[in-house]
């Protein structure tokens, strides 16, 4: 199993905005696209991919199952609907979007249904999103450690998740970082600005390079061509040990996304 280290995210992008963003990203060389049922943009993402002319086998498409579709009789049909919207016979990765302990469907039920979706060929790989250590262990117990490709979690220089990321690494589960720029808050950070100046880079590039150097995959989004292009350059930026130590010191448990009823008790 492998997860591309760099993709384009589509959270909060809808309509023509998401079509333009994904189409531009693909023009610039992105080959991984991340969406979700709840984003309400799968059809537009599918249109952008179709319009791009990029061959399907060159792309890595991820979607996420929403809580309303966790029941065993709903998950597979909902994924088939997602595939229709995305105009593809399969996705490369399907995630459970939130553990949603308050939504009445047991983890064993939705993880079993997710494994069934893979067995049916609807998704090449399966994984989880926003799971803590205890829930990841439960998911492993249901489908097997080697079946979980990634845990997509909020991480940024302000929220570094040391315990959870160490556990995932130990289990051989790829970490995918979302909200790596903390809704743009890190862009104003003086420490990151100093590091960026040292490397003649942008602060966004520094934050993304930090995540990449820790071995995480990243999925930043943007509606601006120049930002989409600039973000890609983070792959070529090498931060030294002093830079990484300064960023490590920025940890402040700065979580941006924590919806009641969906989120777990965080580690």
Question: Any overview of this molecule?
Answer:
The chain is an alpha/beta fold. The chain has a single domain (8-183, 215-227), classed as NADP-dependent oxidoreductase domain (TIM Barrel), CATH 3.20.20.100. 40% of the residues lie in helices and 14% in strands. It is built from ten helices and eight strands. The protein has helices at 15-28, 42-52, 75-86, 107-119, 133-143, 162-171, 190-199, 203-213, 225-232, 241-248; strands at 8-9, 32-34, 60-65, 91-96, 123-129, 148-154, 174-178, 217-218. Strands 1-2-3-4-5-6-7-8 form an eight-stranded parallel beta sheet. α6 (162-171) links the parallel β6 (148-154) and β7 (174-178). α4 packs across α5 (133-143) and α7 crosses α8 (203-213).
What strand order characterises the main sheet? 1-2-3-4-5-6-7-8
Measured on Cα atoms, how large is the radius of gyration?
18 Å
Percent range for helical residues?
40-55%
H-E order: EHEHEHEHEHEHEHHEHH
Name the shape in a single word: globular
- Biggest sheet features: 8 strands, parallel
As for the number of domains, it is 1
- CATH fold field value: TIM Barrel
Number of strands: 8
Structural class: alpha/beta
Provide the CATH architecture: Alpha-Beta Barrel
> CATH superfamily name?
NADP-dependent oxidoreductase domain
User: Span from first to last CA?
Assistant: 26 Å
